[in-house]
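TICKET: design request
STATUS: open
ATTACHED STRUCTURE:
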């Protein structure tokens, strides 16, 4: 069941979920960081990332988890892309970007974070551990154009679709030909077609995987991924692959 909860009402909503005995719930924008203080315990991954998208009720209270990073990796794998020994550029340094940067840095990937607010990119890079090589910069026309030709995967973790973002930065859309894969996380608005010749990973594939992972946490059994995916396809009236 979806509930629209305003910023000022999150605490009340969490208390209501406790009172009503919810076994679990998902949290999305803009609550993923505010909720950190409202749960009783954080899973190690969520604590590192500093963002929660899944809450589960346990005997010792509400526990916060984050399934975005693993959901993204499962989505990538479903397209035949294994994020190991890859050159990855991530646009954005918000909650979703943090989940992916932490997940990618667990392997020997080279991850470059480009964000509109440089300080946030720096903070994310400084707080990421693991064998991955992390660098950061401000998101500008030059910084993005300069790294595209040596990028295996461009992840756009901003709410703006890649076609609009490159246009805002005055980068010709054809420059995206230089990267092998493009992965928009946002699914709120349709994307203008990207130039042919590269793979595009659908944000909806990640949406289903991160949801199936939440199900696994709540029920301690494999999530019904195929059923969840086909329900979304039926709801949309079309597949995305
Ligand atoms: N497919 C999925 O399953 C899935 C899962 C999680 C999230 N998402 C999507 O991912 C997107 C990001 O979510 P989030 O939770 O990370 O949001 P967030 O915490 O608000 O972070 C947004 C990031 O985008 C940047 N940004 C915002 N507007 C921008 C603009 N006009 N130009 C350049 N950069 C801009 C922000 O930069 P500043 O730091 O400078 O403000 C920030 O780094 C959302 O659209 C969300 O729906 C999808």
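STATUS: resolved
RESOLUTION: sequence designed for all positions
ATTACHED SEQUENCE:
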């Amino acid at each position: 069941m979806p509930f629209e909860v305003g910023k000022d009402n999150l605490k009340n909503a969490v208390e209501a979920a406790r009172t009503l005995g919810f076994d679990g719930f998902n949290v999305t924008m803009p609550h993923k960081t505010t909720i950190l203080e409202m749960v009783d315990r954080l899973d190690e991954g969520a604590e590192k990332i500093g963002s929660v998208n899944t809450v589960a009720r346990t005997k010792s209270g509400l526990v916060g988890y984050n399934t975005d990073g693993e959901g993204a990796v499962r989505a990538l794998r479903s397209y035949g892309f294994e994020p190991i020994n890859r050159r990855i550029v991530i646009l954005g340094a918000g909650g979703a970007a943090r989940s992916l940067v932490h997940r990618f840095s667990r392997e020997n990937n080279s991850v470059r974070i480009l964000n509109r607010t440089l300080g946030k990119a720096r903070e994310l890079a400084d707080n990421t551990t693991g064998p991955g090589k992390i660098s950061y910069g401000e998101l500008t026309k030059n910084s993005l154009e300069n790294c595209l030709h040596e990028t295996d995967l461009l992840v756009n973790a901003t709410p703006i679709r890649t076609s609009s973002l490159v246009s805002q930065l005055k980068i010709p859309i054809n420059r995206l030909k230089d990267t092998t894969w493009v992965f928009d996380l946002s699914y709120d608005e349709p994307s203008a077609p990207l130039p042919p010749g590269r793979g595009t990973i659908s944000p909806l594939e990640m949406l289903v995987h991160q949801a199936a992972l939440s199900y696994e946490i709540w029920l301690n059994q494999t999530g019904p991924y195929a059923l969840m995916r086909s329900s979304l396809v039926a709801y949309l009236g079309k597949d995305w692959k």
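CLOSING REMARK: Strands lie at 24-26, 41-42, 54-58, 61-65, 87-91, 110-115, 133-138, 153-156, 181-184, 199-201. The chain is about 40% helix and 20% strand.
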